[in-house]
Amino acid sequence: MRVVLKIKRFNPERDREPYWAEYEVDVEPVDRVLDALEYVKWHLDGTLAFRRSCAHGICGSDAMLINGRNRLACKVLVKELGARITVEPLRGFPVIKDLVVDMEGFFAKYRAIKPYLINDEPPPETERRQSPEERARFDDTTKCILCAACTTSCPSFWANGEYIGPAAIVNAHRFIFDSRDRGAAERLAVLNARLGVWRCRTIFNCVEACPRGIDVTRAIAEVKRALLFSSL
Amino acid sequence: MYRGREGMWSWILHRVTGLGILLFLAIHIVDIYLLGWPDVFNKLLFLYRHPVFRVAEVFLVAAVLYHALNGLRILLVDFWVEGTRLHRQIFWVQVGIFLLIWIPTAFLMLSPVVFGR
To answer: Does B3 score more than 90 pLDDT?
Structure first.
């Protein structure tokens, strides 16, 4: 199967503006977009830059805008897209080169919500026990792989890059609603700030974008309600 | 624009209708202010009786109606536990209610212009 890969390229040391480059690639229908990108890099143009690590939909490195949707290049098959495939870097982040974007701000917001268990109580003899129901309370938000597909589909984030963004809220949700955690108040204080959860306008693009199928807007709504009613 | 699904469109329309209502309110405040000069006010009244203004009013009704109904939808999404799961269905119900109210209203408002009474 012959496909045309149309890639938005940009080298800040050479180009004044991003430009489109097209590559014809022979692939199997069940190949992934990542395979096509690797073919370009290895055989056609070694200067193409993109991130990938595990290549199996777990590490979250290769989120990009593929045919107008944020997806993981390693998780979408060529046959789902047809003979023309358009690949762009994630929107709303500064482009470092080609498909590689600067995610430092994204991870700074992730760190701001303290994404680790906070509990100063003396540890029990064995483990901190949790019932299946208590575990289920935050199950959906444990699935996040920090690929930034949600945050970069969010118009509130495009309008103001300082907005903490859906990914950070999802990861805060994961601990706020964890029965073993005692840091909810600290996290909710961060999310209650001017650039916190209240910038969410329930546009639901994040839910459309999440490659892990997380109901992001629901998690954000639960955090909003927790702030309003202190109901944890 | 990202994919242009229900959530994205409902938000864009909310913004556009909000700005439209704001524009109307600005005009409205100016014209009521002109009541201080009854002569000027009366002379400008022909603007409000003009068919074009009547058509614009139909769209003003649309803007207020959409903005109000979408506000209720956002309340459901924010406060009802099932709201985020059913937001798409709620949106289409909202569109239905909107058309059900707007089309007869538009007919009543435009019939004097179209049929002359």
So the answer is: no
Token pair 């524009």 is at which residue?
A: B23
Please tell me whether the interface predicted TM-score (ipTM) of this complex is above 0.90: no
- Give the gap in angstroms from C-alpha B69 to the nearest C-alpha of chain A: 15
- Candidates A69, A205, A225; nearest CB to B8: A205
| Farthest-apart Cα atoms in chain A, separation | 62
Of A68, A204, A224, the CB nearest to B87: A204
Q: Is the pLDDT of residue A55 over 90?
A: yes
Check CB contact of B8 with chain A, cutoff 8 Å.
Answer: yes
Chain A residues near residue B85 by CB distance under 8 angstroms:
215, 218
Alpha helices in A19-131 (DSSP H): 33-39, 104-112
Domain B6-115: CATH architecture, name and number where available: Up-down Bundle (1.20)
What value does the mean pLDDT take over residues A64-82?
A: 96
Q: Do A221 and B78 touch (CB under 8 A)?
A: yes
The model's pTM: 0.90
Domains present along chain A, CATH in parentheses: 2-101 (3.10.20.30), 104-228 (1.10.1060.10)
What is the domain partition of chain B in residue ranges? 6-115
**Cα B77 from Cα B70, distance rounded (Å):** 10
Q: What is the pLDDT of residue A232?
A: 52
Between CA A226 and CA A189 the distance in angstroms is 11
